[in-house]
C-alpha cells in the first residue's frame, strides 16, 4: 500500500519548492489530520471548481482549449461543458427576464 503522506510531502517539495523542514511538518500534519482515514482522490477536480474566470483568462490570451485544460488539470470536454453551462444559464436568465 502507498504511503500518501510521504508522497504528498515529497511532491510539495518538488513542485512548490518547500524546504525539508516544511515538508516534514506537512507530512506530520497530513498524518495527524487524515491518518487512518480511507482516502479517495478523483483524477480530475470537479467541474464546479473550475471558474469561468480561469477559462476566460486563457481564452483572452488566445490559448488553445487543450492548453487551458492542461493548466487547470481537466479535460477539454470539461472546459466545453463549463462554457455550455454558462451559455445555458444565460439563456435561461434571458428567457425569465423577457417573459
Describe this entry's structure for a reader.
Helix 1 (4-16) packs antiparallel against helix 2. The protein has helices spanning 4-16, 20-34, 52-60, 65-72, 76-98. The protein contains five helices and no strands. The longest helix is centred in the C-terminal third of the chain and has 23 residues, at 76-98. The protein has 99 residues and is mostly helical. 69% of the residues lie in helices and 0% in strands. It has two domains: 4-34; 47-98.
Question: Which structural traits does this protein have?
Answer:
mainly alpha, single chain, 2 domains, elongated, 99 residues
Could you give a quick summary of the protein structure above?
The protein is built from 5 helices and no strands. The chain has 99 residues and is mostly helical.
Order of helical and strand elements: HHHHH
Overall spatial form: elongated
Query: How many domains, in number, for the residues?
Result: 2
| Beginning-to-end CA distance, first to last residue | 59 Å
What class, by secondary structure content? mainly alpha
Give the % helix: 55-70%
- Average pLDDT reading: 85
Which percent range describes the beta-strand content? under 5%
Q: How many strands, which pairing sense, and closed or not: the largest β-sheet? A: none
Q: What value does the Rg take, in angstroms?
A: 19 Å
Tell me the total number of β-strands. 0
Question: Could you give the topology of this structure?
Answer:
Layout: H1 4-16, H2 20-34, H3 52-60, H4 65-72, H5 76-98
Amino acid at each position: 500500500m502507498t504511503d500518501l503522506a510521504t508522497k504528498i510531502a515529497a511532491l510539495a517539495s518538488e513542485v512548490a519548492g518547500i524546504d525539508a523542514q516544511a515538508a516534514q511538518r506537512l507530512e506530520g500534519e497530513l498524518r495527524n489530520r487524515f491518518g487512518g482515514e480511507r482516502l479517495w482522490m478523483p483524477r480530475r477536480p470537479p467541474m464546479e471548481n473550475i471558474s469561468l474566470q480561469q477559462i476566460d483568462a486563457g481564452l483572452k490570451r488566445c490559448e488553445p482549449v487543450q492548453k487551458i485544460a492542461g493548466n487547470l488539470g481537466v479535460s477539454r470536454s470539461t472546459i466545453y461543458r463549463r462554457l455550455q453551462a454558462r451559455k445555458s444559464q444565460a439563456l435561461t436568465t434571458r428567457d425569465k427576464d423577457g417573459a
